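User: two proteins, same treatment. go.

Assistant:
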Amino acid sequence: MKKLIWIFIIANISISCNKSELKNDNVIKFWHFWSEPYQAKVIDSLISEFEKETNIKVELSQLSWNNGKSKLIAAFNSGTPPDVLELGSDWVAQFSASDVLAEFPKKDIEIFTEFSTAPSYWDNKIFALPWIVDTRVLFINTDLLNKVDASIPNSWEELLDIAKEIQDPKNEIYGMSINGPDKNRLYKKAMTYIWSAGGEWQYENLTSAENQYALTMYKKSVNVGIVENQRNIDRMFLQGKIGFHISGAWLLNMIKKENPTLNYQLSLIPGMNKQIGYSFAGGEYISVSKSSKNKDKAIQFVNWLCNGKNTLEFCKKIPEGGFPADKNYFNDDFFKSNPEKMLFAEQLVNSKMTPVHPKWLEIQDVLEETFERVIYDYDNPIDALKLAKKKIAVIK
């Protein structure tokens, strides 16, 4: 009798273990950065559709942009990474070069817009799929523009001339916004100046005439505007205190909610020195952990999530979500019906992503420090760039 009882117990333990293994085989963990309540609700809804279609369970964990990257690195270092993870476009190279991400088949990249695919590659292999892309445009206070009897500027030089006329700090009115010390944000504005001046932030040409011109123009901007962090200058534009301001789609939502009577218009980023105006292009990328026990299901989920049909639903419900990276949905009729969104789409054609480099975040720190040194007159442009080159020589 005792022998039969033990057999029964062992059998039940075995069945229980098999069920547990089966359950784990059908569950993948996804860490993402859409943590605002209304964003999380959209993510939950999207994931529910995937679960219904595939019978694969997705466990979600929210990260913040303040410490999310550190948590991801800690998870990989401790051997407990999620199966699927969201990465910013300028993070992908660091993770790809660290040999912690699973490789995607080459065919999986074919559906995406060409400009979005560069961060996906490392050593000619694909370690992340583009999900969402977006950019920034020029916001213009129409009342302040009309007050000085000016029209939308066609060049950055013209923009500075108009901003000078608008500038009235005694009455808290500023010609334009300038990003000051603001880690992980200043570089986005800095790259807009560099690209629009015809420059690049590469070691080989750091001290180029184009980069010197970009820094010179940044310093001139300081004299006809206000230096603040992105959050504060967004708020000041919202309050009608800034003439020209570069920002993203999130500001549109803020205006509609908090100051719908603000008289403003949008424009493409103007160029400098007869160059094309370029904006900063950001993107969200989805990767799979190399150590995932459910790699096939994780890759299946990533392909589903990054398919434009599903990404479009996400972008429709989260206005600041941007555009699907899937080229078949990038110019969907949904966006064509919204002139403001189409201007962002038009700017994306003349936008760039940061260089693909595993130590970009260190290089980015040097970039921000270089602009800060010029803003506060510690160095002139050429000396600041020479110092930057010495620092980047150590990093690279």
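Protein 2:
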Amino acid sequence: MSRQALSHFSGYKFMWVMVLFDLPTTMPEERRDYTQFRSFLLDNGFEMAQYSVYVKHTNGKDAVQAIVRKVEAAMPPEGKVDILQFTDKQYENIVCLRGRRRGDSLQNPEQLVMF
């Protein structure tokens, strides 16, 4: 399959998952829960986009649903977690601003990494 055909296909089939969270950190056990949740995301292939915002590339809706279940199970007892899901095509349209200037657009991976 040509690169162009693969690019078109992945733009609609492959998905991104974004986890945004606001967890309490005033008590020592809350800080521990925060650290464990953040470590869980990193251990499961997420990359930090911003503080408390993590993204992961997946191979479709079924993978997204499995990730949502895992994140839900790992969530600490207190706090707020939102999970967004969107296609490669939508992800490539993100506008990045860095200090009043447009930054480089986020790049989709060339190839889906399989573990």
